Amino acid sequence: MDGPTSSMRKRRRAGETLTYGLALFLGISMLAPFLWMLSTSLMNEFDVYQYPPRLLPLDPVWSNYPNALTAAPFARFFLNSTIMSLFIVCGHLFTAATAGYAFARLRFPGRDNVFILFLANLMVPVIVLLIPRFLLVNAMGWVDTYTGLIITELVSVWGIFLMRQYFLSIPRELEDAARIDGASEWQIFWRVALPLAKPALATVALFSFVETWKSFLWPLIVTRSMSMRPVEVGIAAFHSLYFSNWPYQMAAAVVAVIPILILFILTQRYFVRGIQLAGLKG
Predict the structure, then answer these.
(1) Three-class SS of residue 29?
(2) What percent of the chain has pLDDT over 70?
(3) Angle separating helix axes 231-241 and 74-105, nearest 10 degrees
(4) Which of 107, 201, 221, 223 has the most CB atoms at less than 10 Å from its CB?
(5) Is residue 47 part of a domain?
(6) 229 pLDDT tier (thresholds 50, 70, 90)
(7) Of 139, 154, 49, 15, nearest to 92 (Cα)?
């Protein structure tokens, strides 16, 4: 009896070791580009071109960060990205919560067909809609304005889908109890369903902020002046000015990633729980 049991334990340990090793390898692979970016940002301009290449700077050049951020109007870039991200995140949360609840709980003619049409938008490549969106924004006179950057981004189909799935997972008994107490449909949504959906809301906010903060193509098309460019477009313009100075470019890129890292750390608990609980219940 000891022989087979011991063999099974050894196989189990070997499987666990292989799993942990693979997870460690994947983790290092994903962190490697960021670590290289961080290391390069602290190098001298000419250290990058040495052979063999250095993995770590011998004498970290911390002045690369203030020098890079003052070589271009990065304060304005960050302000533009912050304003754009805050408005778009608020728009996504409002539209996703209200539309998701309507598709999950309210009954109206054609509800399922309308929801299918919403999901069909996920199959349309974003690049196909760029020209119609630009023509519409240009006709309204919103090119190179905050309105033009924000107005076409206020609805997230993915966010509506996620919130609908999450609202479907909430027991109806809680809502029925509120109706018995005389609560209206809006009160049920605001006081019962929405507080229970905080994990899903945090997930929508996190993904919305990350997607908006790193958006490049639409801001590049709809803005013309440097004073309206967000961070990603600003870094691209910065690259054209300092194409040979990789430490400056990497320093700017590291600073651009920091807000996303902070937001993920603050919302990680809600993010993980939201992904776990927002199942595909239909």
Answers:
(1) helix
(2) 94
(3) 150
(4) 201
(5) no
(6) very high
(7) 154
Residue type, 78: F
Residue bearing tokens 């006179």: 141
Give the amino acid at 16.
E
Number of domains in the chain: 2
Residue 86 sits in a domain of what CATH number? Answer: 1.10.3720.10
Q: What is the pLDDT of residue 275?
A: 61
For residue range 161-188, list pLDDT tens digits in order.
989 988 998 888 888 888 888 888 889 9
Q: What is the pLDDT of residue 153?
A: 93
165 and 203 housed in the same domain: yes
Residue 49: inside a domain, yes or no? no
- The DSSP secondary structure of 123-162, one letter per residue, reads GS-GGGGHHHHHHHHHHTT-TTSHHHHHGGGS--HHHHHH
**What angle (nearest 5°) sits at the alpha carbon of residue 127, between those of residues 124 and 128?**
55
What is the domain range of residue 101? Answer: 64-277
* 123 shares a domain with 16: no
Each residue's pLDDT tens digit, 12-30: 787 778 888 888 888 888 8
Give backbone dihedrals phi and psi of 147, rounded to 5 degrees, phi first. Answer: -60, -45
Both 107 and 179 in one domain: the answer is yes
* 47, 57 Cβ separation under 8 angstroms: yes
The pTM is what?
A: 0.84
Q: What is the three-class DSSP state of 61? A: coil
Does residue 34 share a domain with residue 76?
A: no
Closest CA to 103 of 36, 166, 46: 166
Rounded to 10 degrees, the C-alpha dihedral 92/97/100/101 comes to: -170
From 159, 153, 155, select the one nearest 197 (Cα to Cα). Answer: 159
